[in-house]
Amino acid sequence: MAEAAATGRAPRFFQRLPKVELHAHLNGSISAATMKKLMAQKPHLQIAEGMVVIDKGTKRTLEECFQMFHFIHQMTSRPEDILMVTKDVVREFAADGVKYLELRSTPREEKSSGMTKRTYVEAVLEGIKQCQEEGLDIDVRFLVSVDRSKGAVVAKETVKLAGDFLLSTDGVVLGLDLSGNPKAGHGQDFLEPLLEAKKAGLKLTLHLSEIPKQEEETRLLLGLCPDRIGHGTFLQTSELAARDLVELVRRNRTPLELCLTSNLKAETVPSKAQHHFGFWYHLGHPVALCTDDKGVFATELSTEYQLVAETFQLSNEEIWALSSEAIDHVFAGGHTKTKLKERWRTLKPGLLKELC
Q1: For residues 349 and 145, what is the distance between their CA atoms, to the nearest angstrom?
Q2: Rounded Cα–Cα distance for residues 211 and 214 (Å)
Q3: Which positions ≥6 away from 31 have C-beta within 8 Å?
Q4: Alpha-carbon Rg of the chain, whole angstroms?
Q5: Each residue of 80-100: pLDDT tens digit?
Q6: Over the range 134-156, which residues count as b (16 or more CB within 10 Å of their CB) and which as e?
Q7: Which of 126, 206, 217, 281 would be 187's cystine partner, CB 3.0–4.6 Å?
Q8: What letter would DSSP give residue 297?
Q9: pLDDT higher than threshold 90 for residue 1
Q10: Whole-prediction pTM value?
C-alpha cells in the first residue's frame, strides 16, 4: 500500500508539501534561468550551460563537480551579481514550497570588481532582506562557509567575519559551515577556528565522510559535537574501525543533512536504493532532506522528497513526518520553531485531504 501511494502521488503534492531546506550552497543553487541572465551580462567569459549544470541522467566525478564552481564563481564576481542570484534562489525555493531556508556560502573577494568578503555577505543579506520585503512566504537565514581548501589562516578570518555578522544581523546569520573539496587539507587544521566559532555562539554544521577512508578526520571533527552533519556518506561503512563513528553520531543524535541527487550525480553512492538515507532513516535517526546544489544538480527539494518517497516506499504520513521533523533541526531559536510547527499543523489537513 505504501508503495502504491508513493508512486501514485503527483509532483504537485511534493511541491505543495511545506518543507525545510538546511543544506543549500548559494552559488550551486543558481538555476538555469538565472545563469542565462548572468551569461548575457558576461558573454566574454564564454561559459555555456553545460559547464555549470549536470542534467538528468548525467554524472560527474566529485572533482569535476568542484571544477564547475570555478566557472560559477567567474559569473558571480560582483556584489550586484550576488544580490541578484540570492533573490532568484530565495524566490525559487519559496515557489517550491520551502517555508524555511538556511542558505550557505563562502565569502569571496574579487579584486577586479572591488568586492570584499564583507560586501559579499552584505549583498547576500540585502537579497534576503529584499525578498522579505516582497512578502515571500519563506523565512531565510544564512550560514557562513569555511572553504577547507583555503587553509586555517583564511578559516580564522572567516570565523571572525561570521561572528561579527552573528552579532549584527538579529538572527539572520546563525552559524558556520565547513565545506569545500574533501580531499583538500585535514580536519586537524580547522579545529582551532571551529572551536572559536562555537565560543562565539555560532552553530556548526560540518561536511563529514563525503569520501571513503576519512575515519580519523571524522572522529576528530565529531569531537567538536557539531550541531549537524553534511552528507556523512561513508559514516556507516561496515569496516570495524568505522562502527564507533555511527554509535557516536547516534548517541549525540546529531542530525544528518542528506542530498540524494547530489550524491548520485557526483557518484559517491552507487544507486538510489543504496543511498545512506535508508540506513539512518530505518534507525530512527534525525535526518533532513536537502538539495545541496539545486542548480548544478538540476533538482528541487520537492524532487528530493519524491525521490525518497518512491525509492523507500514512504507513505503520506511518513513523508509529512519527515518534513515536519526537519523543523527540529533548524538553527533558529525556539520561537521560530514553534511558529513553523504551527504553520505545518495549519497546512496539513488541506494537503492530505487533497490526496484523498
Answers
A1: 38
A2: 7
A3: 88, 89, 92, 294, 295
A4: 19
A5: 999 999 999 999 999 999 999
A6: eebebbbbbbbbbbbeeebebbb
A7: 217
A8: T
A9: no
A10: 0.94
